[in-house]
Amino acid sequence: MQFTAEHAEWGRVDITLDDLGCGRSWEEIHRVRGVELVCPECGGQVHARVSKLGTRHLYHRTKPPSCSLANESLEHHLLKLELVTCARAAGFRAELEVAAPTGEWRADVMVLNADGSWLMALEAQLSPITVEDIAARTGLYERDGVAVCWFGLRPRPWVGTVPTLLVQAPEEQGQTWTVTAGLARFSDRPVSWLPVGTGLSDAVAWMLTGRIVPHTPLSSQRVTGKDWGYEWAEGWTRYWNDSWRLWWTTPAYAARDAECARERAEARRRQEAEEKAAARRREEKAKQRAAKNRLYRAFWDRTGLDRQAWRGFRALAELHLDCPLAFGAPDARYGDGRPVYERSGPDGEQWTLIGIACPDPGRLRAWAEELPLLVPSYADLDVLAGRAWAPFQVYVLDPYTGEIDQERVPPASVSP
Hints:
Keywords: Coiled coil
Pfam family, one: CoiA_nuc
InterPro entries: CoiA_nuc
Number of strands: 20
Protein name: Competence protein CoiA nuclease-like domain-containing protein
Order of helices and strands: EEEEEHEEEHEEEEHEHEHHEEEHEHEE
Helix content: 25-40%
Strand order of the largest sheet: 6-7-8-9-10-11-12
Domain Competence protein CoiA nuclease-like: 72-150
Strand content: 25-35%
């Protein structure tokens, strides 16, 4: 069953047109002897007839095994007829079974521009085909500047890898063909692509006028079969989520999708930058903690104190000075001693430097003349006395005996 043929004098014959596309009538070829029509693909003789369903078509007198037009199924022919009808109803000139001059492709339906140039091929793809083969055929159309949409009746592995619409034939007389998958609308609350159903005639008109375009979604989503609303949907969910790459949608939805993708990319960039900055801060804090730990380890090693002895030392300092104190970390500015602050104010937020605890005797500077020096033993007092170049105020706070003493050390012969 096919719809086009060649006549030696009339040229191309299309029986879906009232004038057969060549200024003739159906009555001139139907059951008329002597009219020689040949198949445009195989060159075999074809004849006009009407099917039991009332569909005009052409058939081969001898069915050739290698002619694709002669071996197309009834479903294929009916879908082709519906596609060409939809294109013509949308106001476009459309022809059936149009072949490229090179013979590399033959469009089931070729929709033409006003100047007669090719606009879009509408392909009914009902027989099995691999993803690679349909991609290659799509590439041939693209090479020749022809847009294409592939129409199927049920889920196949290739569906959605090229511009695709799945359709459903009417079940009862008076009903119309419908689109069951391939149309989608974009929602950004939440970000998702949602399937849309419509009549096939509307979908064809929309794609030919540019109201819908094939678009590769930039916003990923997951859906369940119930989102489709079709009987076979549950078995098709995997294809929606994993295989469908191109949707027909409006340019506005495609633009909003791209905008949302940019927004998400920018959000990811900011998040990554924040994470990197946080990682740098953590690394810097870790380095600071490590450096601080090294300072404290050096302090404990130099003074011979442990943390328990240090707590006793601090308690004696507060007892002797009779005020709340805060001790800073070992500070190189004060000979690796620990600054001693008096805390004041309503919340103890004001700190006043009042002394230096356990400074390295070999690193005393001018501050030793002005600030009291707090040490844990008389041995430390003796060392400081040997280093004094001016009078030093020294407090001995022995954490092991609880002894407290205050000495003013006179200058020794050692200069700073």
